[in-house]
Amino acid sequence: MTAFGMTAPDMIAPAGTDRDFVPDDRLDRAVAAAAAALAGRQSPDGHWVFPLEADATIPAEYVLLEHFLDRIDPDLEARIGVYLRARQGEHGGWPLFQDGRLDLSCSVKAYYALRCIGDPADAPHMVRARAAILAAGGAERANVFTRVQLALFGQVPWRAVPMMPVEIMLLPLWFPFHLSKVSYWSRTVIVPLLVLMALHPRARNPRGVGVAELFRTPPEQVRDYIRGPYRSGWGCIFKALDSVLRFATPAFPRRLRRHAIDRAMAFVTARLNGEDGLGGIYPAIANSVMMFDALGFPPDAPPAATAWAAVRKLLVEEEDRAWCQPCLSPVWDTALAGHAVAEAAGAAAADVAVACTWLAGRQITGHAGDWAVRRPGLRPGGWAFQYWNDAYPDVDDTAVVGMLLHRQGDPAHAEAIARAREWIVGMQSQGRGHFDGGWGAFEPENTHLHLNHIPFADHGALLDPPTADVTARCVSFLAQTGMRADEPVLARALAFLKREQAADGSWFGRWGTNYIYGTWSVLCALNAAGLGPDDPMVRRARDWLISVQRDDGGWGEDEESYADAPHGQYHESTPSQTAWAVLGLMAAGATEHPAVARGIAYLAATQRADGEWDEAPYTAVGFPRVFYLRYHGYRLYFPLLALARYRGLQRGNDKRVAFGF
């Protein structure tokens, strides 16, 4: 039953019938209930933050971290065990997202964590997991980060890991491999890891747990840990360089190595970021904890204690289970929820005002982060994703926050908006290549594509090149705040978006799943920039969205669309993806199209009695094909935004979406 006492089939019918349309009173109740539910989750200081869930990898790594340090919390680990067992797939292993295929590396870590927690190897679920892992190639075929974890626990020799000498810290900026040429997330993960790979510490592992049973070939006998297939000729070149470094590195002067380790420690310490942690992301924070431990820092030493507190801050502890988040998302959640409330209750609503005040206080204006290597004269003015992460603001968050502050209209925020606009314009990618005019998330010109082929980068996510969804958000912000489409900044950005449009009319979604997310984002941008429904880009995208609507009126897309699954298709509809599609169609001028009415009917029919929605599938991504995300807030604020916008357009004289988001 729905919130209104009707089942979904009673609400949704084929296009062209009266049942495609939600009556005004029912639409009002749906909006009111969703707005009340969202308001009930707002913190007293004005911000929202929802859990951010990845796969089993992060909770498993947290368990292994406790055993590395011998800081075992039995009660906490028992509850993490409940979470890990529940995430095991029917195939016996662990997937990267709801109902996904087995992922070997995730499965190895989850299995090892459960063994550390105390699950016996002959327990039925462990027997199934072990058989699945061996059938997938065994632990020797796990990815680089998993093999590093196994090396720290003495389960594989260090030659199983690609060469990454800590002396990388001393390379000059002009060198083909320099840390400024990889993404921020790669940089913060790599730097403390370089120290670990130089010192080869051994986990305390007080219970002496090993996982030799996960290897097809005994680890010491494996001779091809570093192997193809290579994605280009660069892979063969870098494999040869890896072989050379294995012979050359032991001859490096000890003084040089000490200097490099000091440089790495200084890098980490300068960006420790308090209890929000190095880079604000779990892998970097956990590596910093192990780095300080390997360097001999006692647990209560200020930097070591701060790093450990940052790890603990990521834990979600429930009564019967616990898990660890990859990071926290308060700025993103607050900005998105703020837009939804502004759409439902008006930009002058008290909940919006207090959220904007909280957001304004998080703007980074006094610290030039790592992005300044490429933009040394640019004034800072962005927002980060987390509570604090001054070294790594991103243009996506900045644009969404800037649009909310602009929409709210408080003159007190004028300077914040101007600073954000200046920073985003300055972060646009330059040059004459394919990426000209686009925006990456965190840094400009992070496009040294050859680096994605080093053996260490087997995940293929070392870089932060411009993408359609992030570029669209910047276009939306700049256009909403008054920049014309024929001005050079927007003209170059629109040309980039035109180049990025797929043959079927969709756009790839780098940070959300996937072509539905990307297409919605770009359609909002094109509308904000003044491109109307008859523009060829808009028309093709609108037609594509309509073509992938599901029979129940909603939309859904499989995470496997990042691999070889069809664009915009899934075996079920989801509230967040349905909301994106409806919002995209409204931005494309199709508010009166029956597909929009059916999407709105789907959202109304699936709303719970408490005003919220259920959504188990993952609808976001960290790294395509490697790391996926489930934002627990997406099922709340995106449907509200879609319902409220539809109501406003249906009842207003102007059918054009007035905002960039």
Topology:
Layout: H1 8-11, H2 24-39, E1 52-53, H3 57-69, H4 74-87, H5 104-117, H6 124-135, H7 144-152, H8 184-199, H9 233-248, H10 254-270, H11 282-294, H12 302-312, E2 315-317, E3 322-324, H13 330-345, H14 350-360, H15 395-408, H16 414-426, H17 468-480, H18 488-500, H19 515-528, H20 536-547, H21 575-587, H22 594-606, E4 620-623, E5 627-631, H23 634-651
Helix pairs in contact: 2-13, 2-23, 3-5, 3-11, 4-5, 5-6, 8-10, 8-11, 11-12, 13-14, 13-15, 13-23, 14-15, 15-16, 15-17, 17-18, 17-19, 19-20, 19-21, 21-22, 21-23
What does this structure look like?
The structure is a single chain. This protein is an all-alpha fold. The chain folds into 2 domains: 8-52 and 327-651, Glycosyltransferase; 53-206 and 229-324, Glycosyltransferase (Alpha/alpha barrel). It is built from 23 helices and 5 strands. It has helices spanning 8-11, 24-39, 57-69, 74-87, 104-117, 124-135, 144-152, 184-199, 233-248, 254-270, 282-294, 302-312, 330-345, 350-360, 395-408, 414-426, 468-480, 488-500, 515-528, 536-547, 575-587, 594-606, 634-651; strands at 52-53, 315-317, 322-324, 620-623, 627-631. Strand 2 and strand 3 (322-324) form a beta hairpin. Helix 14 (350-360) crosses helix 15 (395-408).
Helix content: 40-55%
Let me know the largest β-sheet: 3 strands, antiparallel
Output the CATH class name of the largest domain: Mainly Alpha
- CATH structural fold name of the largest domain: Glycosyltransferase
The rounded Rg comes to 25 Å
Rounded mean pLDDT is 94
**Strand percent estimate:** under 5%
* Helix and strand sequence: HHEHHHHHHHHHHEEHHHHHHHHHHEEH
List the total number of helices.
Answer: 23
Strand segment tally: 5
Low-confidence stretches: 1-18
* Arrangement of strands in the largest sheet: 1-5-4
- Secondary-structure class: mainly alpha
For the record, give the distance between the C-alpha atoms at the N and C termini, rounded to a whole number: 32 Å
Count of discrete domains: 2
CATH architecture of the largest domain: Alpha/alpha barrel
General form:
globular
